[in-house]
Amino acid sequence: MVTNEYLQRVYADLQQRNSNEPEFLQAVDEVFESLQLVVPKHPEWEEAGLMERFTEPERVVMFRVPWVDDSGKVRVNRGYRVQFNSAIGPYKGGLRFHPSVNLSVIKFLGFEQILKNSLTTLPMGGGKGGSDFDPKGKSNAEVMRFCQSFMTELYRHIGQFTDTPAGDIGVGAREVGYLFGQYKKIVNRFDGGVITGKGLTYGGSLARTQATGFGICYFSDEVLHNIAHDSFEGKNVIVSGSGNVAQYCAQKCMELGGKVIAMSDSSGYIVDRNGVNLDVLFDIKQRRRARIKVYADEVPGSEYHDGCKGIWTVPCNIAMPCASQNEMDEEGAKSVIKNGAMAVFEGANMPLTPGAINAVLEAGLLYTPGKASNAGGVATSGLEMSQNSIRMSWSFDEVDAKLHTIMKEIFKSCYAASEECGQPGNMMLGANVAGFLKVADAMMAQGIV
Prior knowledge:
This protein has about 450 residues and is of the alpha/beta class.
């Protein structure tokens, strides 16, 4: 609970002005709870209105996206770009295409992105965008027409030194290609660094596809080794979701000795106690774009269950929620705890509700917040931008090694901050404080802007 008077006042004002934005308010409340340990040491922050400025986006762009489906019918979706904070670099953050997208979701993601990008040590500010458009079930032609319409408005607000989007849920290689192609056509320039997650033939980076999932495991492995003196070896692991992040989290987890026994999508979840066959899963999700239920039809001994929330009732040693925000509630967390898990490592952005986080921490489980553990994706986007700037491409192993180093450094900075706050090993506290202090110093140095 936030008890600092200054933070209480700022949060009360946010609640009044953003009462219909629960995800955004949830994200701010979590961060404020950590920052109340450092705010009293800096009275100059209150004088400069730092927290008021930190929680208010520098710019919010909302626009109409008209497009024509294959039957000739005109469709209209809503597009967003929240440019939240540019104190340490150009706005950087993904685009999400999903029916759940609204202003609250985009603001929460942009707010989290400020701290996540700060932790990477790379010069990137925080932003996020997207649309309530759903690519599922759409033809390639429909997705292309939507992306072209979306970029026809977005292009005027982005640039490699202004704002550099990337992919997120619903925005993969196909969508990024269509978005970049339209941007290039409109501006008549090949600004490779304006969007990341591109294909390898036109400026993309090796290892970018795997980066978020791999990075989660690199960070979590540091937590296991340095705090618990343990490893993934021999552990049964649940990885919720089955999109890009979950797929490569599962792959790296298995390479580190873990056994992934359950995965999910928005319809339900599979259990394979022999270990999920990733070749089959990748074929279902990457090539066929089918539901995860197909896995149980094709792999003997596996099970499928309707309803994705039930995945947390499957006994495991480590739970890694990699699907979406608030996917693990307090009930799910208590099931994980009851079944003897030792750790919950976030892969998605804010996948645990506040009640779930409290339950996990009170039970003494290891816990890593997404803003730290899933920062590998945006870190490698930053590396893609660097390669675009110097007109060079690094090998997969070079990028992967840089990613591994970045995740180790994120762990070190988070752990050091948790020690300084008197709670060594509290990764949520450490991530919030370490990420914020860098941004706060830059904001104070640049005046009231």
